[in-house]
Amino acid sequence: PYIQKKKGEDSDIAAYFTSCNRNKQSIALNFTKPAGQAVIKELLKDSDVLIENFKTGTLDKYGLGYEQLKEEFPGLIYCSITGFGHTGPYKERPAYDMLIQAMGGSMSITGVPDGEPMKMGLSMFDLTAGLHGVIGILAALNDRHHTGLGQHVDISMLDVSVALLQNQGMNYLAKKERQARVGNNHPNVVPYQVMPSRDGHFILTASNDEQFERFCKVAGRMELMEDIRFNTMKARVVNRSVVTPALNEITKMRPTAWWLERLEKEKVGCAPILHPDEVFADPHVLSRGMLIEMDVPGCEEPASFIGSPMKFSRTKVNYRLPPPRLGAHTEQVLLDNGYVEEDIEALRESGTIDFEPRAPGSEPPATQIITAREVRASRKKEEAARLRGSTWGRVSSVSEPQLDGYTLPMSEYNADKPISHLKVST
Q1: Over 91-104, what HEC string results?
Q2: Is beta strand 77-82 parallel, antiparallel or unpaired with respect to 151-156?
Q3: Do the beta carbons of residue 375 and residue 411 sit within 8 Å?
Q4: Which of 89, 205, 303, 345 could hold 269 in an S-S bridge, CB 3.0 to 4.6 Å?
Q5: Is the pLDDT of residue 425 over 60?
Q6: What is the pTM of this model?
Q7: Once rounded to an integer, what is the mean pLDDT over residues 135-144?
Q8: Which helix (H) or strand (E) holds 203?
Q9: pLDDT tier, 43 (very low <50, low <70, confident <90, very high otherwise)
Q10: What confidence tier does 381 reach under pLDDT thresholds 50, 70, 90?
Q11: Contact 418, 370 (CB under 8 A)
């Protein structure tokens, strides 16, 4: 899908692209040409970090590999994110997230016990490889503060997928035995799973014996604590085939909201299973600024975006730029780095760069433009009251969408309540 240019009309900006390209400037540069390689080296003179995710060896062909750059730029942090890394027998293979899920072990432990291996609903290792790249870059920058030297940060998606096996990986290493898939259950905790209710499903995570006893109290089934198959965590795991069906029959007796309100009151881990429309209507999610609106060049209405999960005590996250069109900032970036108009025109005519000076987003902004607003800032006053007390009664669905559920309220578009702005001198 594409973000909306106006109601009922798609723009040419894909939702997938917008999910990972906010706060970026875009230049279109042909680095296979010597002139393009020269431009990159010119930009590197004032750069701390270079991040690339081409197949291993691709940039070496053009004199842009780490070993070729490190002498000229000894302080450069050069981060490569690839499927299999820059060493090892698989280093030249291409990779996609699903291949990594399969090869890294996560698919073999995901899915129902008697079904086929199942991939996750997210491109998990595309995402977490990037996160580990950031962690590696920060560590390398910290080292540079002490040594003055940069280094190559080599991130492999396969390495990340193996590292994130965590407790499941250690369960194997402890006894060198394969573990069967347990579906939505937890290999070491019972109950820690999807539970059926009278009108859907919910999550129950009674992760210790005290919580399980409190669950029994809510359910009115304290006799389970006298049953040696139920009264300890170890017993519940060993007797999973008995415990899980028994608990399922208990939770089927009441609707989801009944369970959630009472379990929450007794401090037993529980949660609804929300669809994205419910996530972005959740009062807590909104109170944390996880839904924002940004002005996108070429779109008549502000577009909705996911907010940053990072909250700082002294500073605010600065949503500086909406996702750019390809090459929208080529001219601006080159001018900011010492190129003159004649140089830029020569690069364009030679096919080294390509940009459209009149593309939306490439024009110089006004002295001050508001680029982002938290949706909560423009919500009606009565929404604040909904942040108090239980909200489980407004959860519409835990397994199937329902049209009569708690839907995302329409927000007023108030441009006078910014959470970030960009100042540009003209």
Answers
A1: CCCCCCHHHHHHHC
A2: parallel
A3: yes
A4: 205
A5: no
A6: 0.81
A7: 98
A8: strand 201-205
A9: very high
A10: very low
A11: yes
Token duo for residue 10: 């798609």
Q: How far is 131 from 389, CA to CA, in rounded Å?
A: 35
Kindly provide the residue ranges of all beta strands, DSSP E only, lying in 145-273, ordered along the sequence. 151-156, 192-196, 201-205, 269-271
* Residues whose CB is less than 8 angstroms from the CB of residue 77 and which lie 6 or more positions away in sequence, other chains included: 48, 49, 50, 137, 140, 141, 144, 150, 151, 153
Contact between residue 100 and residue 83 where contact means Cβ atoms under 8 Å apart: yes
23 backbone φψ class: left, alpha, beta (φ>0; ψ -120 to 50)? left
Does the structure show a pLDDT above 90 at 180? no
Q: What digits encode the pLDDT tens for the residues 232-265? A: 999 999 999 999 999 999 999 999 999 999 999 9
Pull the structure tokens for residue 84: 């299999």
d(CA 100, CA 103): 5
Q: What is the CA radius of gyration of the chain?
A: 26
| Residue 169: exposure state from Cβ atoms within 10 A (0-12, 13-18, ≥19) | middle
Residue type at position 238:
V
Q: How far apart are the first and last CA of the chain?
A: 36
Phi, psi of 109 (to 5 degrees): -110, 10
Q: What is the DSSP letter of 368?
A: E
Ramachandran category for residue 208: left, alpha or beta (phi over 0 → left; psi -120 to 50 → alpha): beta
The Cα–Cα gap between 210 and 225 comes to: 10
Quote the CA–CA distance of 381 and 386 in Å, as a whole number: 10
- The helix/strand/coil state of 341 is helix
- Residue of 193, 189, 195, 187 whose CA lies nearest to 209: 189
- What type of residue sits at position 216? C
Strands 291-294 and 368-374 come out as antiparallel
Is-contact 217 276, C-beta < 8 A?
Answer: no
Judge whether 199 and 205 are in contact, CB under 8 Å.
Answer: no
Give the tokens for residue 314: 């002294």
d(CA 355, CA 330): 6
The catalytic residue positions are 126
Token readout for 378 is 């423009």
CB 105 within 8 Å of CB 111: no
Report yes or no: 217 and 265 within 8 Å, Cβ to Cβ: no
At which residue do the structure tokens 């698919």 appear?
Answer: 107
